[in-house]
Here is the input.
Amino acid sequence: MNTKAFEKLNYTLSLLSAANGDKHHGCIINSLHQVTASYPAKFTVTVNKDHETYQAIKASGSFSVTLLAADCPEGLIDCFGYRSGRVKDKFAEYAVKTDGMGNPYLMEHMVARISCKVVDSLDIGSYMLLVGEVTESEVLGDGPVLTLQEFTNRGKTTPPAATVYRTMAGNGFRCTVCGYIYEGESLPADYVCPICRAPASKFVKQD
Amino acid sequence: MNTKAFEKLNYTLSLLSAANGDKHHGCIINSLHQVTASYPAKFTVTVNKDHETYQAIKASGSFSVTLLAADCPEGLIDCFGYRSGRVKDKFAEYAVKTDGMGNPYLMEHMVARISCKVVDSLDIGSYMLLVGEVTESEVLGDGPVLTLQEFTNRGKTTPPAATVYRTMAGNGFRCTVCGYIYEGESLPADYVCPICRAPASKFVKQD
Here is the structure.
């Protein structure tokens, strides 16, 4: 098996978001896909069960996804792609709109928005696969979307919430919540993730 | 709702194939996606339940997917994307290899191959969503993959098996097996699809 084969696939990057009560959560994903050509239109997303965004989707039964424009600024991707909603209100610095189901979304630097009601789900391990039926959709921009390949071509690492198999050279431990890699032979028992503050128990050894 | 929003997403095009006894089936899809970042690697594909390729996957419990190279010739895409396995042995003109589970695949004009064992499935209407665990994977080429947006930018129509919402201007009937559109106000009762030979009962009115 050569896992380099997995990296050949190209994906659209988007911002997945949902509300948990009055709190807004969101993360950068590559896992929005239309899954049927028939009516009603259905999309799937997969989300790490430990992510705050998943908890929000579970609470609200719905989500919003906005497709990132190719010229989306790095600051926005850093904010939503590499920080945890446990320690930061990611939407605080942005002009937030909400869809008919109360999910937050952004208009700027986005190409399109698709809001879905969750109609089915499948447990696939550490990730949950959610089937959504579209309730609202709109075009927000003219330009092309940002793909994962264009993003990584710029020397960027894959956002932790993206469902892309990651391999690393050498030993280390990966935070199952946000994807942060601790490089070292052993992980201190009182270690706390510098990105999302998850405890050492949430880290798994990389093979 | 503006379904133009759905067309903004970009996807990798690939050849999905499986064996049904000694018969080889395959079609061009945009629905292969990695769905978990954790081990073991899992991918989903969605396939129209009426397609011969789905019947083959159901029979064998496994499938092979090869990612199309950006320079993949039109003849290959025409053969696998717009013909039905009911009326044509699509693999007849190509040098076919088979993976460890007996699924056929092609090496030329392909970037990577991923073979999967089906471990779960979800009925999402006219399409079936299949969860596959990778059993074999290899890199077959250096270049970039062909994306749906690059393909349609060349003036091509979306291959019928692609899970992309299609809308049409005016009245007509769509073959639910292969996606062919019959343009007209009413469909003759003895009509047979010119692409896949499905009967009139397999056509649905387009809204």
Observations:
- Helices of chain A lie at 52-60, 74-81, 148-153.
